[in-house]
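Title: Request for sanity check on BON domain-containing protein prediction

Description:
We are preparing a figure and want to confirm that the structure record we downloaded matches what your pipeline produces today. Could someone re-run it with the sequence below and paste the raw structure tokens into this thread? We only need the token string, no images.
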Amino acid sequence: MEYSFMQKRLAIAVLFLSLPLTGCAVAAIGTAGAVGLTAAQEKTMGEAVDDATASNEIKSKLLSESANSFGEVDVEVTGGLVLLSGRVNTPEERVKAEGIAWTSTRTKDVANEIRIEPPGGFLANVSDEIITGRVRARLIGSSTVKSLNFNVETYDGVVYLMGIARSAEELKRAAEEASVVGGVKQVVSYVRIRGDTVGRAAPTTQRSPSTQTTPDASYDTGADAELIGASY
């Protein structure tokens, strides 16, 4: 009887994990996960909760607006900086997605990396997920990178790094680790350096493979109000 009871509990757990997550479920799991990792990260518990809440809020709003238009838009939030990646069909949808990102009271800035392309399909998304997993594995295996401080998103072979680096050297090393993973075309960083008095991310762009140079820790805002990485 005891064995049967445990079997039922296991079955319920497996069933729950296999179901699509609703907005409430995503919010609950995302926030709990953020709190659980805070002790090992550079950001505070409050910052982790705010980021998880903002991410789930923006994702829910995008899908509520149009699941067909924004189903392939990914949202990542770190330190109030919202990274939008993925694809939409029209320039108007790209602008609309950014507008929705700004509706969150927790949004401090938006990096709009959304491309205007037709749907990529299942295989394209799987390929990007595989690259993301490999990049994370490289960061975890690095002795010079505190991997929990970095979030990784991949779209069409372009890897986006977010988070908080302990130094410019650590950020450079993280970009190097990501750039050598098979299938990576480019590394774009929106990572903030810990102790940066400006309080902004330090976007850097690195093509793979490439000769390593010192990242340009500044935003290129000469002719465009959007956040873009400095190429090198």
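Thanks, this matches our download. The domain at 45-116 is CATH 3.30.1340 (Histidine-containing Protein; Chain: A;).
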